Amino acid sequence: MLEEYLKKTEPEYYPPVENLLDLIYEHYTEKNPVEKNTVAGKAAKTKEKELEEWLRGLDGMDRLVDDYIGDKIPLWEKIMDRQGTVCCAWEKTAFEEGLKVGMRLMVEAYSL
Fold first, then answer.
1. CB distance 95 to 25 below 8 Å
2. 44 with 12: CB under 8 angstroms?
3. Cβ contact 23:5 at 8 Å
4. Does residue 48 have a pLDDT over 80?
5. Cβ contacts of residue 79 below 8 Å, gap of 6+?
6. Secondary element (H or E) of residue 105
7. d(Cα 69, Cα 79) in Å, to the nearest integer?
8. Backbone CA torsion sign across 93, 98, 101, 106
9. What's the CA gap between 90 and 97, in Å, rounded?
10. Is 70 helix (H, G, I), strand (E, B) or coil?
11. Which helix (H) or strand (E) holds 73?
């Protein structure tokens, strides 16, 4: 089923998925972007800005380093990018674990 879906649907920006949970996560996040205007979204954006400003203020953060595509970017920007990647990985893991718990609860509820 996953292979048939992937043949018909070309993802806009995410990498190829390897399992059904990856597909569900990528599809959900593509169709339901994070809302930045919520209280939690604004608080997260403020914290991200504080981290960025702190990193910029450290000695040596103006040093240029290679980016993924070969461009030169400031070190603080590379650190922020990696930090974002780690956060996304944790978000994806939490999403998938939540789906597993939801499926387990549904199976238990229907078996009563």
1. yes
2. no
3. yes
4. yes
5. 55
6. helix 75-111
7. 16
8. negative
9. 11
10. coil
11. strand 72-74
In the chain, domain spans: 1-33, 36-111
Q: Using CA atoms, how far apart are residues 40 and 100, in angstroms rounded to an integer?
A: 25
Q: Average model confidence (pLDDT) for the chain?
A: 81
Please tell me the pTM assigned to this model: 0.56
Of 19-28, 45-54, 86-95, least confident by mean pLDDT is 19-28
Q: How far apart are CA 64 and CA 68, in angstroms?
A: 13
Average pLDDT over residues 71-87: 89
DSSP structure string for 25-63: HHHHHHHSPPPTTSHHHHHHHHHHHHHHHHHHHSTTTT-
Can you give the pLDDT at residue 65? 92
Is the pLDDT assigned to residue 93 strictly greater than 60? Answer: yes
Q: Say how many CA atoms lie within 13 Å of 27 toward its Cβ.
A: 12
The C-alpha atoms of residue 106 and residue 98 are separated, in whole angstroms, by 12
